[in-house]
Amino acid sequence: MTNAELAILSLIAEKPHHGYEIEQVIDARGMREWTEVGFSSIYYILKKLQDKGLIQSRPEPPKGRGPGRKVYRLTPAGQAAWRRAALSALANPERAYSPFQVGLANLPQIPEQDAVQALQEYSQRLRDRRDHVHARLNQAGDTLPFHAAAMFDLSLTLIGAELAWVRRFVRKLSE
Amino acid sequence: MTNAELAILSLIAEKPHHGYEIEQVIDARGMREWTEVGFSSIYYILKKLQDKGLIQSRPEPPKGRGPGRKVYRLTPAGQAAWRRAALSALANPERAYSPFQVGLANLPQIPEQDAVQALQEYSQRLRDRRDHVHARLNQAGDTLPFHAAAMFDLSLTLIGAELAWVRRFVRKLSE
DNA sequence: CTACAATATTCTAGTACTAGAATATCATAG
DNA sequence: CTATGATATTCTAGTACTAGAATATTGTAG
User: Fold this and answer.
1) N or C: which end of chain A has fewer CB within 10 A?
2) D chain positions with any atom within 7 Å of a protein CB
3) CB < 8 Å to A104, chain B
4) Is the pLDDT at A64 greater than 80, yes or no?
5) How many Cβ contacts (< 8 angstroms) between chains A and B?
6) Residues A86 and A7 in one domain
């Protein structure tokens, strides 16, 4: 099960949803901070999950604006698959393939000045990202459930560690 | 330019290579620790880079065992593209889309005991990964060029930060 | 009563790989 | 001189998205 599949399956495990609503929830919760799932991918993934027998859809008559919806819910197989996948995600660290490391691999061929300048931009953007996450955290305030606060905290921790490393590295480079 | 494209372009920027040799270098340098590039993707990517006019190939008569090779080198456009891409990788942090965060998003629906157990497995595997990187670093010894040592150090730093976070989190969860 | 905005799904045509088999060449051991 | 294994590239048939356009329905503002 891919990242995007699990993200969508999670939402359906929480409660039945239709496609458009999933997009709205992803947006409202800022899930794109930690998962990558384009609008047009949602229906694609929904179809795949259905083909695998993990979810089933029921058409609903139109309510309010717009045409009728297809509401998806977990099948028993889907319930089991969700549980397995969620626990597996919590138990198995995955390598991150970051372009930054590929960039570092090129250092010997790059003039030092250019490298230092690029790395300083990198720190600046990391700081911006940290501030952005921080702002989102403050904006949510004390209303956040425990696990959501933890997710913000994890992001801030990882960004902080990378930022400290890059700063140290730049200092060493420009010595 | 994707991660994999830049990784391969980097090797060709260093010096001309043929496809099979690129596989060997990727393997020998342990590049799969920080970049994802399957054996069969190498020729695919080489073809794409050539179609974009960033590299050109020259057939070489067979030497030693095996058939003749196609040796790839940068074109002037490739040289420029490589420089731009390498600096961009050093200047632009990218979000990491980790299944772990998706797992965390599922915490409210998971019995605490199961979650704690999964997270303990996660720490254990992170420790294993850290030890593995550490072993590779020691094995390389003092022969490592500056930037390669830095890459190991970055990996260790990031793994260390994540490990510390997970340990703290498990402690809080099981309180 | 009509145009517009919001809601909702589907379709088309891509991109970017990836696994694994097929094909081919050559050195060397037996 | 033949089988094997190392070297080297190409091909086939997938998977997993992704952007963006097309299609359709319904409430509401003018």
Assistant:
1) C
2) 5-12, 16-21, 24-27
3) 90, 147, 150-151, 154
4) no
5) 211
6) yes
